[in-house]
Amino acid sequence: MKKLTALILIACLICASIPGAALAAPQRTIRIDPVTYVNPLYGDVLPQPRQTMPKLASAATAEAEIYYTTAQEVGQVIRSYMKQRQTDFQFGVAFQNYTEDGAHALMDEALTVALSHTGEPTEGDYLRWQFGSWTYGAEGYQQGSTVYLTFSYTMEYYTTAAQEAQVDTTVDALLEDLSLADKTDYEKILSIYDYICANVTYDHAHVNDESYELQYTAYAALIDGTAVCQGYAVLLYRLALEEGIDSRLISGIGNGGPHGWNIVELEDLYYDVDATWDAGTTDYEYFLRCEANFPDHFRDAEYDDAAFHAAYPMSTTDYVPTVPCDHHYTAAVTAPTCTQSGYTTYTCTLCGDSYTGDEKNATGHTYGTWTETEAATCTLSGTQERICAACGTTETQTVSPLGHDYRDSYCTRCGQLEPGTVIAPAAPEILSCYSKVQTSVKVTWTTVDGADGYELWRSTTPDDPNSWTRAKSIMSGTTDRYT
User: Fold this and answer.
1) How many angstroms separate the Cα of 38 from the Cα of each of 82, 111, 128, 229, 318?
2) Is residue 220 a contact partner of residue 214, using CB atoms and an 8 Å limit?
3) Which residues contact 349 (CB under 8 A, 6 or more apart)?
4) Residues 124-169: pLDDT tens digits?
């Protein structure tokens, strides 16, 4: 296993760029001589770069199609080339307030972005643990206050594009064979772990041959069936992420020497797994363990600080899968009511699992007859109610006003006079009727409220009630003399 040191990871951001075609003639040439960066994971393994120096574009041909402006953008570009296992590539970067130190700092930050954990199976730790070094230089020019550089990169990978294509095809076939689609996350990671432990052996033949770089790869573990701990861990990382289970590759000291293993996420917590140490057996000692029960594993500092533990919280106990239960269910019936459905609840007496079934529709109310609670009148509404015999629910409804029932100009219920009816005033009371002479009579009567006048009637034939005739109309006063 190689010496493992730390990298700081950051998240990549969305690209913004400057089109190269918008640039005017250069003012002066800028050059950065080739610089080699050995992957810090392998600082003790690759003390000298083995790749050739990149061929820099000349100032006259250093025009890039796009000039990026941030480390996040550059990191995304580098990541895309790394995923394709491109060994030589170029891209442009535009700098404001340019210094060479600032350019190197941006490239350092871009490497962190390129290798950051994204959750994509072929990114993050899958790239970080499978390349040895890179060398870059740059050539360009200054235009106004902006420096435009075309960077030329040469990368050293542990696998080729053809080998990674073979890994992709084999991974797809393997996951199909494992039939993981309908399994739980626990069942998925167990199936993956079973496969690796049963089909990958430790590469003792190359353990001291650091020039044989395939031993550190998922390709060696998956295609050749033999690898060192790093190959085990990178393969598990790839397969877990392919199935949507988050994982990280952890470096540190195991059994006194450099070692690598994984953490995987189940139910929002992370657990340690070490397929290398469990390989060749089915009685797993290092599968889904908490830190306290994972002996002889000591993390490197970057995987053991507060920030990393906050991002990847470890369980304080080993993962215990749910044991399938030979259920024994008892039934409890909930009868339907007037308004709610009925159902039966089945509960396992062994594990407490429960479900409902046998649903029955609500019965609806069983109401009695309507009883008047407030009588309606000719002009006001009344109310009546009825009661459900099953549940006691009371239903109330409004009774419309009855309206008037007029007979002989008056309502038979409330006595109101029918609209439009004219009522004649009452007959006045005769107060006196006397005569001083035989031919003249003086009549006096009471005043009748509402009367506009009075009519004086006389009988033309004594004792004949039908012989009356109007003698005179009087519009004012209560006394008149009739001759």
Assistant:
1) 15, 11, 12, 21, 37
2) yes
3) 328, 329, 330
4) 999 999 999 999 999 999 999 999 999 999 999 999 999 999 999 9
Q: Which of 266, 254, 307, 308 is nearest to 290 (CA)?
A: 266
Q: How far is CA 128 from the centre of its chain?
A: 32
Cα separation, 420 vs 432, whole angstroms? 36
> Please, which residues have CB within 8 angstroms of residue 265's CB and are 6 or more apart in sequence?
245, 246, 247, 271, 312
> CA nearest 275: which of 212, 194, 164, 382?
194
Beta-carbon contacts of 323 under 8 Å, excluding residues fewer than 6 positions away, are none
Distance of alpha carbon 263 from alpha carbon 254, whole angstroms: 15
Residues 6+ apart with CB under 8 A from 81: 89, 153, 155
Contact present, 391 and 337 (Cβ < 8 Å): yes
pLDDT tens for 299-358 read 999 999 999 999 999 999 999 987 777 788 999 999 999 999 999 999 988 778 899 999
Instruction: State in Å, rounded, how far the first CA of the chain is from the last one.
Output: 153
The letter for the amino acid at 360 is: K
Single-letter residue type at 235:
L
220 vs 231: CA distance, rounded Å: 7
The answer, as to whether pTM is greater than 0.90, is no
